[in-house]
Amino acid sequence: MIPGSLATARLSRGSLSGIGRLALRVPAAARCYTAGSLKINADRMMKTLHETCEWGAAHRYGDGPFETGMARLTLDEDDATARRWLWKEAEKLGCSVDVDEMGNMFMIRKGKRDGKPTAMGSHLDTQPTGGRYDGILGVMAGLEALRTMNDHKVETEYPVALVNWTNEEGARFPQSIVGSGVWCHDVPLEKAWNLQDVKDSSLTMKSELAKIGFLGSTRCSHEATPLAAHFELHIEQGPILEATGKRVGIVQGGQAYKWFDINVRGRECHTGSTPFDTRSDAMLCASRIIVESNRIAKQHKGLASTGILRLSPGSVNTCPGHVFFTLDVRHPSTHKLAALCSEIEAAAQHIAAEESEKGCSLEWVETFDSPAITFHRDCIDSVRKAVEANYGSDAGVDIYSGAGHDTCSTSKVCPSSMVFITSKDGVSHNPREYSSPEDCATGAQVLMDAALLHGNVEAMVGSRGKKCCCCYPGMVARGALVTSTISARLLSILYPSPILLKPLDSPSIMAAPYTDTGVKPDDFTEFDYVVVGGGTAGLAVAARLSEDASVSVGVIEAGLWRPECPKINYPAFIGQTPMNPDYDWCYETEPQQHSNGRKYPWPRGKVLGGSSALNFLVWQRGYKGEYDDIGKLGNSGWSWDDFANFARKSATLEKPSKGLQDAHLATYDEEVHGSDGPVQTSYSKWYTEAQRPWFEALKSLGLANVRDGLAGSNAGFWVSPGTLCPKNGVRSYSASAYYAPNAKRSNLKVITGALASKILFADAKNAAGELVASGVEYSVGGATYTVKARKEVVVSGGTINSPHLLELSGIGKADVLKAAGIEQRIELDVGENVQDHLYTTTTFKLKPGHTTWDKMRQDDFAKAAMEQYAAGGDDRGIVASIISGFAYVPLKQYLSADEIAKIKDEVNKIDWSQYSNGVRETVQLQLARLDDDKCPFTEFIFTPGYFATFSAPEEGQEYYSILACLQQPFSRGTIHAASSDPAQPPKINANYFSVDADLEILSKAVKYCDTITATSPLKDITVARQDPDPEKCTSDDDFREFTKDVTSTEYHPIGSCSMMPREKGGVVDARLKVYGTANVRVADASIIPIHVSSHIQSAVYAVGEKAAHMIREDAKKAH
């Protein structure tokens, strides 16, 4: 488990900026701000709004001074005037103004520290017949917020910004949400620049930007002008607030929608002489479809609309023979939208079939698909708290936006949310658009407070100077085990005492130190073996091969070596490296169709040591039958005994004392563990008093206490060891275990900061017709180099980077490579069969009298804990503790025989023909596991502390959390190159919950956590469930939705270079050689073809150890 697995990975909803990274000296003022303590000047804001609406005023509809609409089109003279005015006003407030190459304006008010600003943004452009509130209000409210801060001499910890986005409306240049779209990389810059004026095609957006002086020099990219968060005030443009009587809409996201082009073809006929029963009336057929689509959409609480309808021949006395119309279908849920569209299409086909006897036919084409956009939970919570503080808990209502907004773009790359206020009669895009001054003031107050509340969190959690820390979940030090969906109100009371972070309080450490291996490209030119990837398995391979002084080994690693970094070494700081680009690749999935369109973060180690430097130190092995299944797939030498033997070879266990064994069930079987391997493992010395009652509750429910879960029979509950060095209380990982002790070997060289771009092959194939690798191309600092491989190339980039490198080298599926612009060399199922574990968290309040990681929020406790850790000795206390309480359970523990049979039946009914023979075989092996009472399908992890997803912890309250984890996923995903550019991340489609059985199993496991906590003696020390909300999450459907919304990867992806026979879709054979090559092997988690019920770190080390063993064996045979 990577530390990110302690964060509910709802990337599209929740992110924290740099949690734990620089939260050292938080001023008291930063802790004091409460919503409503500053009041905006409503009269000033409205006066400014109406004065600026003189630029572009049009379409008078009444006698009042403000009863005109607007026609201020993007980049026209009125827009230019408004922009110049805004620039000057921002400078008057002391803001710096930056304009990018799309004309987006960033007006930044300084904070005490440099970093990414929390922004309030919207747009100044309008429709040709628009009103004076759409967009304009959002900008003026943001400006008023800055003015109010200046009035009260507010000094924020980090910058606050106002943003004016270009061409949101798309009225003059016909594409909406363009400026923010380019900024978030959704819209190509050249495409945006080349958009033509709808009335004069000689004018482009670029030419008009230049004409008015707003073609900025700053690159239009969230990387060049990053934001920590983005909030937008907007009129609702609909009737919901007015109908419900609520003052504020707390916007949850944007609806998913699909567009369809539909052609109905019949036969023209005379309206007077053709009876109804002989007509082929395309118009009647189309009308029935439109009416039925409306009925179905309404039934499912969606929307279906026809915006374009054309018919021919278009004569008053002729029944149309051809009707073309569009259908726009919308729903807040991507998954439910797909089901809704399927139902509408089926109904349309049925209607057409009824008409077919008369000669009507139907053509149905999907033209656009936009998944639901879910705003970020921490931002939503900031809005909610601002509403409640100012106007009471009844003033707001959760709402989805039916229209597109700039925030829909920003939410893709930074935490974002919106505030809606009433628009009278739901009118918008109309001169009569109106929101009362009182409603405008309400919205502006909430906007400012939400931004300041979020900024307060940012002040608490530290520097926002890095891309990933505003875009992805942050994790914190011990005691602040939080999730990416954590709310703004949470961190002000959750964040641990700064005392805990004192070891980080130095410029050298905060500069992310590293030790140069001393190897430069000039020293890295030719080796017997070239290993690509200095991660968990790669360094094991390199170290073992270089034990033979007669061979040379070179390792290419994109990350750096950081041997003295507390963020890696200290257990208390686990979680500060994932999604931090100094340590991590910061990958994320494509929007997941069956998980409400969410993008999941996929941290992978970009540091010497790979993900073993980022993970949560868990050291386990699964059920032996699962490893035997790997062998059954045609992989001789890859069954339980092989994995266990090589895993033992990699590690050394410090035996737990008898006191630990008796008091905390930290028992072990000596024969199961290694005694002289480089990776140091041990049992935690500290345990919360609440863990033993959890174990006893599981025992009461029929689970057995497993003496040693690494012995091949892991079903039951047990205490797990971790990769913690007992001598000094620091992480043991592949860089410290395999590289550091061997760094002085003359035949082992590791070059860091080097990105491999492709494997090079000799011009001629060998006698067997195989490609022969001659070396690897890589880059350092933008310059390209080549290293020769005399014997072999070993690819150890991990489940993401290994298939990526193979595809960049021309090895993969033809359609994938063609789409990426790569010439194919070998046809293989690279990047297929991806499987991953998932988890979902529930959190419970503890009765008084227990010590958990929550205590680390208290200064005195944290200080004493750090002193104990620093003092050394055998027991370094809570700071050196790790998660240790695990239970692995078969499905029969919480599902009935009928429920299991139904799952089996549903999986068997799926059309698996799209997958390879090998994938189909793995699914059958998994189905067989359903009947094996010793094979766990679910893991439960006991976490001694607060670990919630939505709510905030109560001050002084102790918690425990239970993570329910899916271990045998039926869903299969893909990882493929997006282009031929090695620097461009591959596309990751985990395809989570594409097989509904996965959702059914996991959501029922989440619900089963209530059963565990309702069982004594755990029941006797538990107050209540806090998260998910016990009042809102009760039914099976509730738990399914909760699971889709908050589930995270457990960071155990496998399978993308599956080890199976080639005819089964395998990429490597049982000797790990890539099919079609003579001397390229893959050695990492990507070769594991079917998942196991275990954290996979020890299995990956075993792969590395066995790979080196086989390479040396094969080398001897060759001689």
> What fraction, in percent, of the residue positions are helical?
25-40%
Low-confidence stretches: 2-32, 457-513
Structural class: alpha+beta
Mean pLDDT: 89
Percentage of residues in strands: 15-25%
Number of helices: 32
CATH class placement of the largest domain? Alpha Beta
* Overall number of domains: 4
| CATH 2nd-level architecture of the largest domain | 2-Layer Sandwich
Radius of gyration: 30 Å
* CATH evolutionary superfamily of the largest domain: Glucose Oxidase, domain 3
Which word captures the global form?
A: globular
Number of distinct beta strands: 40
**Biggest sheet features:** 9 strands, mixed
What is the CA–CA distance across the termini? 41 Å
Q: Might you state the CATH topology name of the largest domain?
A: Glucose Oxidase, domain 3
Produce a short descriptive summary:
The protein has 32 helices and 40 strands.
Structural account:
It is a single chain. The chain is an alpha+beta fold and 1119 residues long. It has four domains: 42-252 and 374-455, 3-Layer(aba) Sandwich (Aminopeptidase); 256-371, Alpha-Beta Plaits, CATH 3.30.70; 514-615 and 735-828 and 1053-1088, FAD/NAD(P)-binding domain (3-Layer(bba) Sandwich), CATH 3.50.50; 616-732 and 835-971 and 993-1046, 2-Layer Sandwich (Glucose Oxidase, domain 3). The chain contains 32 helices and 40 strands. Strands 3, 4, 5, 6, 7, 8, 16, 17 and 18 form a nine-stranded mixed sheet that branches. Strands 19, 20, 28, 29, 30, 31 and 40 form a seven-stranded mixed sheet that branches. β5, α4 (136-151) and β6 form a beta-alpha-beta unit. The chain is globular. Mean pLDDT is 89; it is low at 2-32 and 457-513.
